[in-house]
Amino acid sequence: MVQQRPEVGEGDEVFASERLLPKLQARTDDNPRSSKYRSVDLRFQDACVYLVAWLDYEGEFGGTEFPFARLYLVAGGRYNLPVRRLIDWSRAEDFSVTSVDQMFFLQAPSAEFWTKVARHKTFEDCIDLLIKDPSF
């Protein structure tokens, strides 16, 4: 079976960013030494939709991408949702931008770096689950 490109668009990116960015920013607001979340984007890669956070660190030039969740299309236009392992969240937030710049997309397709959260959900349900998840 050939995987189709998931049907997401600019409206979905706005929907995800408006809901997820405040929660992501709250993760590091209290720690001045942590990288700061600046935006959330969608990226299509490896037949999946990745939720990608942009982080920057005061005192360093540039920023880095952190693909923190991926939605892969299953039957009926719904998605399965895995998220990054807890250790990866710590690396993204606490390591320097230059040390994590390429790390996460090199790991992206490997299932061992992801923890399954939900199965057979709409895009909107996946975003809502991330918002409600206390560990996120």
Put the structure in a nutshell.
This protein has five helices and five strands. It is of the alpha+beta class and 136 residues long. It has a five-stranded antiparallel β-sheet.
Q: Layout of SSEs?
A:
Elements lengths: L9 H19 L7 E10 L2 E9 L6 E12 L3 E7 L1 H9 L2 H4 L2 H5 L6 E8 L1 H10 L4
Antiparallel strand pairs: 1-2, 2-3, 3-4, 4-5
Helix pairs in contact: 1-5
How many helical elements? 5
Spans of at least 5 consecutive residues with low confidence:
none
Shape: globular
User: For the terminal residues, how far apart are their CA atoms?
Assistant: 33 Å
- The computed structural class is alpha+beta
Q: Give average pLDDT, whole number.
A: 85
Question: How much β-strand is present in the residues?
Answer: 25-35%
Largest beta-sheet details: 5 strands, antiparallel
Oligomeric state of the chains present here? single chain
For the secondary structure, the number of strands is 5
H and E order: HEEEEHHHEH
| Helical residues, percent | 25-40%
Please tell me how large the radius of gyration is.
14 Å
Across the major sheet, the strand order is 1-2-3-4-5
